Amino acid sequence: MGIVEEAHNVKVLGSGEQIIVLAHGFGTDQSVWKHLVPHLVEDFRVILFDNMGAGTTNPDYFDFDRYASFEGYAYDVLAILEELQVESCIFVGHSVSGIIGAIASISRPDLFAKLVMISASPRYLNDVDYYGGFEQGDLDQLFEAIRSNYKAWCSGFAPLAVGGDMDSVAVQEFSRTLFNMRPDIALSVAQIIFQSDVRELLCHVTVPCHIIQSMKDLAVPVVVSEYLHQKLGGESIVEVMSTEGHLPQLSSPDVVIPVLLRHIRFDIAA
Hints:
Number of strands: 7
Keywords: Hydrolase
Shape: globular
Structural class: alpha/beta
Number of helices: 10
Mean pLDDT: 95
Family: Belongs to the AB hydrolase superfamily.
GO molecular function, one term: hydrolase activity
Protein name: AB hydrolase-1 domain-containing protein
Helix content: 25-40%
Pfam families: Abhydrolase_1
């Protein structure tokens, strides 16, 4: 195993010719794909990895300068693909990883047959003629809550993000992976994500994109999926599911897995 693979806990499963890369969002790790993976391994080769900063990675490897922007994460994705000698993949990115995959595809479009984005957003702050869902005051309160009592914040944020009560398995699972992050790293990553604005990059994304969104999502309003559809540089398609929450692949797998499988297998241009 190479250095990059080891640092990101890379796992390669299945034996198909087509390669699927599954990339998780903030506060989770590759375990968030546990409901999807069994449906893929018979037909595809599946690459799982952990973003640097996830609780499953070595916090000593987290370089605050490198990960002060999405580009650091995008370089990680490209390094993983290079180390595994991947020539083409279907990249499935949840939340921030949908944007990370898009940025990676700008520099190496040849490596990405298509992007499947779940609950992705190019900007979380409201702006003139743009509704991202948050005002700056909301974000300031969020960051202060993380800073002052991380464990308490995790307990409160998890059910809001997942869209379920504290007793649900999905909320407990997200609470666990969220709490596994080192608090200072979690704060840094949250600030980078929620203060981000990559709208100007969208026109440079030329690979086909499948945009999948919950009808009700605390972090990403439904209108954002349509915004992505309009602004991406290549062909794109949107599907809004009848699910609630920011982690539908964890909280509503019965609804989400068939949708994901259809988009993974379906080509927009076909």
